[in-house]
Write a structure and sequence with these properties.
The structure holds 3 protein chains of 3 kinds. Chain B is an alpha+beta fold. Helix content of chain B is about 35%, strand content about 35%.
C-alpha cells in the first residue's frame, strides 16, 4: 500500500513550540491527565520528547506504519510512558488520552496552515488522525502485554505453591494433590515429584488425590505414566484417596490400574509404604490421657 | 511460518547417530526447550537416525528452526533412498520390526513429537519429519 | 579402541557409562561384561547410568540384554541413577525394561545385590562388609 505523503512533519517543525504549549494546556486541563498521579514537570518533558520524536519519524520518509523501524524511538518512548503510568495507577484509557489529546491542537494548526484549501485540510487531518490513533492504541497494547506477563508469572507461582511434595517418613514421600488437575498442571507436578524422588532417594511415593474432584482420561494417563517412570527409576508409587466417583470413572474409561497399588485412604497407603521400607509402628506405652 | 536456520547432517555410520543426537540437543537448548522436551526430541531423533541407517542404508537429516507467530519450533527431516515401506501403518505399530529391533522406533518417535509426517514408497526411499514446538 | 571400563569391587562388577555411546561401543560393552562375569565369577553387576542424558530403544534393549545375560551366568544386575527426563521419555517410548531391576542410588543397589547374592550357593570372594546379611 503506498504510504501517504503527509506534511505533518513540516507543520510540526514550523510551529513546534506553539503546538507543544497548546497541547500541554489541553492536557493540564483534562481530567484524564491524572494530575494527582503525574507531576507537571514530567508531563512537559514527556510531551516535548514525544512531539520531537514524532516529527523526526514522520520527516524521515513519511507513511504511517508505526511498526516500521523509523518509528522505533517513538514506540520505545510510548512503551516507557505506558509502563510508568500503569505503575502509577493510571488506566489504559487515561494513558492513551496522552496521545489522543494531541489531535485538537494539531487539527487547529492544520486548519490555520492550509487556509481555505478544504481538500488539503481533509487529507492532512485524515493522515494525522490515522497516525495518532495508531500511536494511542499502541500504548494500550503495551499495557495489555504488561498485564499478561504479570498474570503468567502469578499463575506460575500458584502452580509452584500448590504442588508441594512432602516427606512422610524417611524414604517415603507424599504428594497431596488439591483441586482440579488439568493436563499442564499434572505434567509439572509429576515432573517435580520425580525430581524429589531422585533428590531424597525415597523408595516410595504416595500420591493422594483425596482433594481432586474429577479425573479425566488425560490426567489419569499422566498419573499412570508418572508411576511407570518412577518404577523405571527404582521407586514405587501408591495412589490413595480414590473416591467412589473416581473409581467409577476409571472403570468406565477402561483404564488399566492393575500394575498400580491403589488405596482408598492416605492412612492405608502410608501403612503399606512403611511396611515396604521395612518399618513397623509399635505401641511402646499406653496412650496418654 | 518461517524457517530461521537450517543444517544438514549425514547419517552413514553409527558415530553419525551420536553426532545427530548432539546436534539436536544443542539446537533444542538454544531454542529454549525445557529438559524433558529436549530429551524427548533427542531420543526421537536417535530412533529415526538409526532407522535411516539400518533400514534406509544411510541418508541425511535436516534440522530447521521454525518461527510462527509467537512460538518457535524445531523440525527434523530424515531422508533415505532405501527400499521404502510398503505398509506404513503397519510400520507405525509398536512391536513391528523387520530388523530385529524392538519395533518402537517409528511409533515412539511419533509419540515423542508434537508433529509427525512420513512418506514412504517401496523403491522410492523414505522421508520422516518430526517437529516439537516450544 | 575405546571401551567402557568395568571395575571389580569384591563380588560385584561396576559399569559406569559416562559417554554418549555409539551402537558399536554398546555392543562391545555387552561382550566385555559377559566375559568379565565369567572370568571373575561375579555375583552382582551394577550399571550406573546417572550420566546418561538419553536412553533410546537401542540402549534400553542393551540394558535389558545385559541383565538377562548376567542372570544366565548367575549374576544379578541393578541399573542405577536413571534421570527423570530419561524415565519419562522411556515411558512415552513404550519401553518397560521388564526384567531390569533399578535403584535410585548405589547404596540401595548394593543392598539389593547383597540380598540377591546372599541366597546363592557360591560365597563371595571377599565380603563387601562381612558377607551375608543376616
Amino acid at each position: 500500500m503506498p504510504e501517504r505523503k503527509s506534511r505533518i512533519a513540516e507543520f510540526i517543525e514550523r510551529h513546534e513550540k506553539d503546538l507543544l504549549a497548546a497541547w500541554l494546556e489541553r492536557q493540564l486541563v483534562s481530567v484524564a491527565s491524572r494530575r494527582d498521579l503525574i507531576n507537571e514537570v514530567d508531563l512537559r518533558e514527556q510531551s516535548r520528547q514525544f512531539l520531537r520524536l514524532v516529527r523526526e519519524a514522520a520527516a524521515s520518509g513519511g507513511g504511517d506504519d508505526i511498526q516500521a523501524p523509523r518509528w522505533e524511538a517513538v514506540r520505545e518512548l510510548l512503551a516507557s510512558i505506558s509502563q510508568t503510568r500503569a505503575r502509577q495507577g493510571c488506566t489504559p484509557s487515561e494513558t492513551a488520552m496522552f496521545v489522543f489529546s494531541l489531535k485538537e491542537p494539531l487539527f487547529t494548526l492544520l486548519r490555520r496552515e492550509l487556509g481555505g484549501d478544504g481538500a488539503a485540510i481533509a487529507d492532512e487531518t485524515w493522515a494525522a488522525t490515522v497516525l495518532i490513533d495508531r500511536l494511542g492504541l499502541y500504548t494500550t497494547e503495551v499495557f495489555q502485554k504488561g498485564r499478561e506477563e504479570v498474570i503468567a508469572r502469578q499463575q506460575h507461582e500458584v502452580l509452584e505453591l500448590s504442588t508441594p511434595v512432602v516427606q512422610l517418613w524417611e524414604g517415603v514421600l507424599g504428594l497431596p494433590l488439591i483441586g482440579t488437575l488439568d493436563s499442564a498442571r499434572t505434567q509439572v507436578v509429576m515432573q517435580s515429584l520425580l525430581e524429589r524422588i531422585v533428590e531424597s532417594g525415597a523408595r516410595i511415593a504416595v500420591i493422594d488425590i483425596t482433594g481432586v474432584p474429577t479425573v479425566d482420561t488425560l490426567v489419569a494417563q499422566h498419573l499412570l505414566k508418572t508411576v511407570a517412570a518412577a518404577r523405571l527409576m527404582g521407586a514405587d508409587c501408591i495412589i490413595s484417596g480414590i473416591r467412589p466417583q473416581i473409581a467409577q470413572t476409571v472403570v468406565h474409561l477402561g483404564l488399566d490400574l492393575t500394575t498400580v497399588i491403589t488405596k482408598a485412604t492416605l492412612a492405608d497407603a502410608f501403612a503399606v509404604a512403611l511396611r515396604r521400607v521395612g518399618l513397623a509402628v509399635v505401641r511402646s506405652s499406653p496412650p496418654r490421657a | 511460518m518461517a524457517v530461521a536456520r537450517t543444517e544438514k547432517l549425514p547419517i552413514q555410520t553409527s558415530e553419525d547417530i551420536v553426532r545427530v543426537r548432539q546436534a539436536v540437543r544443542s539446537w533444542a537448548v538454544e531454542l529454549g526447550f525445557n529438559l524433558v522436551d529436549q530429551t524427548k526430541i533427542v531420543t526421537a531423533a536417535s530412533e529415526l537416525a538409526r532407522n535411516t541407517l539400518v533400514h534406509g542404508g544411510g541418508g541425511t537429516v535436516e534440522l530447521e528452526s521454525l518461527v510462527e507467530a509467537a512460538r518457535r519450533g524445531l523440525r527434523l527431516s530424515f531422508a533415505d533412498q532405501g527400499p521404502g515401506m510398503a505398509d506404513v501403518e503397519q510400520a507405525l505399530k509398536d512391536g513391528f520390526t523387520t530388523g530385529g529391533g524392538l519395533g518402537l522406533g517409528l511409533g515412539g518417535a511419533k509419540r515423542l513429537s508434537n508433529e509427525f509426517e512420513i512418506r514412504s514408497q517401496p523403491g522410492a526411499g523414505t522421508v520422516v519429519r518430526i517437529s516439537r514446538w516450544k | 579402541m575405546e571401551r567402557i571400563p568395568i571395575l571389580k569391587m569384591g563380588p560385584m562388577l561396576l559399569v559406569s557409562i559416562q559417554v554418549d555411546m555409539h551402537d558399536q561401543l554398546a555392543l562391545t560393552l555387552q561382550d566385555d561384561l559377559t566375559e568379565r562375569i565369567v572370568k571373575t565369577r561375579a555375583r552382582g553387576v551394577l550399571i550406573d547410568i546417572s550420566s546418561l542424558e538419553v536412553v533410546d530403544s537401542f540402549i534400553g534393549r542393551m540394558l535389558g540384554n545385559m541383565a538377562a545375560m548376567s542372570r544366565v551366568l548367575d549374576a544379578e544386575t541393578v541399573v542405577v541413577g536413571m534421570r527423570p527426563a530419561v524415565a519419562i521419555t522411556l515411558v512415552e517410548l513404550g519401553m518397560s525394561l521388564a526384567g531390569v531391576r533399578t535403584a535410585l542410588s548405589v547404596e540401595r543397589a548394593m543392598e539389593m545385590l547383597q540380598v540377591a547374592t546372599a541366597d546363592g550357593l557360591r560365597t563371595p570372594d571377599e565380603g563387601m562388609d562381612g558377607g551375608r546379611a543376616d
